[in-house]
Amino acid sequence: MINKFSVLYVGFIELDNVGINGTPSDERRYSNEQIVDAYRMSLEVAQHMDELGYYALWGAEHHFQREGYEVIPNLILWGTYLAARTKQLKLGCAFNVIPVWHPIRLAEDYAMADIMTGGRIIFGVGRGYQTREIETLGAPLLDTTANLELYEEQMEIIFKAFNQDSFSHQGKYYTIPAPVPFRGYQPTEVTLVPRPIHRPVEIWQPIASGKTLPYIAQRGIKGMVTLNGEKITREVFHAYQDEAAKAGRKLELGEDMCLGLGMYIAPTQQEAIELVRPYHDERYKWFAPFGFVRYADENGRPWGTPGAPAGVPRIEDGVQQRAWLCGPPDLLVKELKAYEAEFPGLDQVMIHWPEGVPATEFKRQLAVFAKEVMPHFGKR
Q1: Where in the chain is the domain with CATH 3.20.20.30?
Q2: Could you tell me the sign of the dihedral formed by the alpha carbons of 329, 82, 202, 210, in that order?
């Protein structure tokens, strides 16, 4: 039963001249004064969501983005600040890009945030997908095998750090503790100080290509899919359930998953489509070159793969494939009820804040959604 509604904010500023014919993504340049306005925007929306009863605001970690699309480099720091300025809203990490972290430093930072916010930070991890940031910060991405090896070893350390009173690790990338003397003896184990007080730690990870899906499903890491066409969503949900079963985790279809959808409310569907079109197109101007168009053709082939469409998709494609819910509130309720019926284990829906939509307008959208849509679903 759907009973938790969240928002995904990837960290953009109020972009100017948006749309398919607007400023090309690679030509966008913003001053530091403009970039830091993203933190004001996110605080404004977080406080609004808190008052309206939303479950969580999720952010995305990225680096070097003078283009203004994703300007939050530290989600735990960001979330801890927002938690101090709100009352009950959770703040989600979607996602900590772990190849650019030392796993113990990441675990320590999360543990401190867990304690100081009373458990309001949601932990999430990702392998990364942007070469400019991953490779520049000293981690592999182009070498996909090395990236996967590093990720799996880092996750092994994080699980140990969260769940064991003390631990050691010997792997390809890390030796913990280091084989050095300390106060006259050589340590053979270490303890994470502090450890999270809310355990087991709920961990989330995105499911895009699906290459890491068996790993996360079998280890109890929860999966997030966002702006997927319904065919791809269906495939991912069934695959997660099947892979979890291999590890003895018997889940209802949709359990331990979060479904992310685009949303824009207007009196008619066509009016909503036209209003959100420039922001939808701005998103894919930036994300399509990374391979992040998760719509599919009639044969189920994801956009941009051999034989499937390429380039920037239309908002009509997203609406047709139920990745975007556009129209009056009763239409959104109907679509969400259909998802709820198909995926009985699904309890979380995440609304995507369209890139470039001003905070004032998105707050209005969230207020209408909270008043006209959320009451039709279970209370958390």
Answers
A1: 1-85+209-380
A2: positive
11-25 pLDDT per residue, tens: 999 999 999 999 999
Helix, strand counts (H, E) of the chain: 12, 12
Which tens digits make up the pLDDT trace of 48-98?
999 999 999 999 999 999 999 999 999 999 999 999 999 999 999 999 999
Q: Is the peptide bond before 306 cis (omega within 30 degrees of 0)?
A: no
What distance in Å separates the CA atoms of residue 19 and residue 28, rounded to the nearest whole number?
13
Beta strand ranges found along the chain (DSSP E): 4-9, 56-59, 90-93, 96-97, 121-126, 169-170, 175-176, 203-206, 222-226, 257-265, 324-327, 348-352
CATH of 1-85+209-380, one of 2.10.25.10, 3.40.50.150, 3.40.50.2300, 3.20.20.30: 3.20.20.30
Prediction pTM value = 0.97
- Asked whether the predicted pLDDT for residue 380 surpasses 80, the reply is no
As a whole number of Å, the end-to-end CA separation of the chain is 10
CB contact set of 305 (below 8 Å; sequence gap of 6+): none
- Spell out the long-range contacts of 336-343 with Cβ–Cβ below 8 A and sequence spacing 24 or more: 336/2, 336/373, 336/376, 336/377, 337/376, 339/2, 339/259, 340/1, 340/2, 340/377, 342/234, 342/253, 342/254, 343/237, 343/253, 343/254, 343/257, 343/259
Reduced to 3 states (helix: H, G, I; strand: E, B; else coil), residue 162 is: helix
4, β-bridge pairs:
348
Alpha helices in 172-268 (DSSP H): 213-218, 230-246
